[in-house]
Design a protein that fits this description.
about 60 residues, alpha+beta, Ubiquitin-like (UB roll)
């Protein structure tokens, strides 16, 4: 499986995401927890919501 790292913007903050590809498809997306936590704190959002938004953005 090919892997890479991407950056997505969630709640106005940058969150790094590790992605795994199968062919041209992104099959796994794992946000960096520390980035997601910082974004959640600055935006007043639950960290779980930021993680979900980061995963969704990384799959597009």
């Amino acid at each position: 499986m090919r892997r890479d790292t991407d950056e997505v913007t969630v709640a106005g903050a940058t969150v790094r995401v590790k992605r795994g590809h199968l062919g041209d498809r992104v099959v796994t997306a794992q946000p960096e927890y520390d980035d997601a936590l910082a974004a959640a704190r600055s935006a007043g959002l639950p960290v779980a919501e930021v993680l979900d938004q980061a995963r969704a953005a990384a799959r597009q």
